[in-house]
Write a structure and sequence with these properties.
CATH superfamily of the largest domain: Regulatory protein AraC
Shape: elongated
CATH architecture of the largest domain: Sandwich
Number of helices: 13
Number of domains: 2
Largest sheet: 9 strands, mixed
Order of helices and strands: HEHEEEEEEEEEEEHHEHHEHHHHHHH
Length: 349
């Protein structure tokens, strides 16, 4: 059985078929009812699963069938739609990864119309305003909803590359007018590895036993690793520069707030980048390595304390993060060509 056949089977052939007008149907497809209201979709299932699947199967006779897995009671939902029908403009409280199993899929994201083709994926941030559009052509789409805690756990494994993590870190800044989705295109369209992972994930969500959460976590790690290695991101160079600058500001602000006891390991754990990323990022923006950048911050603060406080040099050395007084003297003299005591005396004279 292929992923397409599995999605069609669970979305169309459940004996508990709900027709339009049912309450659960609004979770599957809520047609646009207002140009001005924005819906916020909450996580649709209870418990600690951390991930769910929404399957859509669209037929040429303008029929949509869908289902959510896992669900307390198995069901499928069917509805008729008019050509060009859209969902109500909405955001999610979770992240959504959409995979186009077959056909094409049209979304309007932040006011921009995007067409996704078979084999492509779209990752949408939890704050991103968008709507889904239905056409008369057949299509099959698998939406994976990922709770924030599950997603944090996935990226903390550092399986995603810098392009994806840059997007996530930028999304945390809630730059709604900048960039809140990523469009992934397969480097090798004939590679079926992604379909295999998604098939396994969907099987686990259908099975939904005590082990499923852990198995789904591992499968999502594989999926995001594959996104990093086997897919290109449709991102303009201008947008990449904006994202990189926002991320640079976020990282350097964090360093400035914690420079006294910061470590590159702490940065890696907080931002989920590999340690060498910070050296490369700071070098490109400031010409300094991470160590040089932190040293500059510490020495600048030491100079202020020498001029504006009565603290001893030992106290100042410790206050800016240097427990080794001899090393503090060495780097201070290296920068200012005089001892801290002489610096204080000369500046006050």
């Amino acid at each position: 059985m292929t992923l397409k056949h599995l999605c069609e089977d669970i979305s169309c052939n459940d004996p508990n078929l709900l027709e339009e007008g049912s309450h659960i149907g609004s979770r599957i497809m809520c047609p646009e009812y207002s140009l001005h209201i924005e819906d916020r979709k909450t996580y649709p299932i209870s418990g600690e699963e951390g991930v769910f699947a929404l399957c859509w199967t669209v037929y040429p006779n303008n029929r949509l069938y869908g289902t959510i897995k896992p669900a307390a009671v198995s069901f499928s939902y069917g509805m008729s739609f008019e050509q060009g029908c859209k969902t109500q403009m909405h955001t999610h409280e979770y992240l959504e990864l959409a995979y186009i199993i077959s056909g094409t899929f049209h979304q309007r994201i932040l006011g921009k119309d995007i067409i996704f083709n078979q084999g492509e994926l779209c990752l949408i941030d939890k704050n991103c305003l968008h709507q889904d559009c239905l056409d008369s052509d057949s299509a099959c789409i698998l939406f994976i909803g990922i709770a924030n805690e599950m997603f944090d756990s996935i990226i903390s494994n550092q399986v995603a590359d810098e392009r994806i993590i840059s997007f996530l870190q930028t999304a945390l800044l809630k730059q709604k007018n900048l960039w809140q989705y990523l469009h992934f295109k397969p480097i090798n369209p004939s590679n079926q590895e992604m379909e295999g992972y998604l098939m396994d994930l969907l099987h686990e969500l259908i099975l939904h036993d005590k082990a499923s959460r852990y198995i789904c976590h591992g499968l999502l790690i594989r999926i995001f690793h594959l996104l990093s290695s086997g897919y290109d991101i449709s991102l303009s160079s201008e947008m990449q520069k904006k994202m990189n600058w926002l991320l640079y500001e976020k990282i350097t602000n964090y360093i400035k707030q914690n420079y006294k006891d910061i470590s590159i390991k702490q940065l890696a754990e907080h931002f989920h980048f590999h340690e060498d990323y910070f050296n490369r990022m700071l070098k490109s923006k400031t010409g300094m390595t991470y160590t040089q950048y932190v040293q500059k911050l510490r020495l600048s603060e030491a100079e202020k304390l020498l001029l504006h406080t009565e603290l001893t040099i030992d106290e100042i050395s410790a206050k800016v993060g240097y427990q080794n007084k001899g090393y503090f003297y060495k780097i201070f003299i290296g920068k200012n060509h005089m001892t801290p005591a002489r610096y204080r005396k000369d500046k006050h004279s």
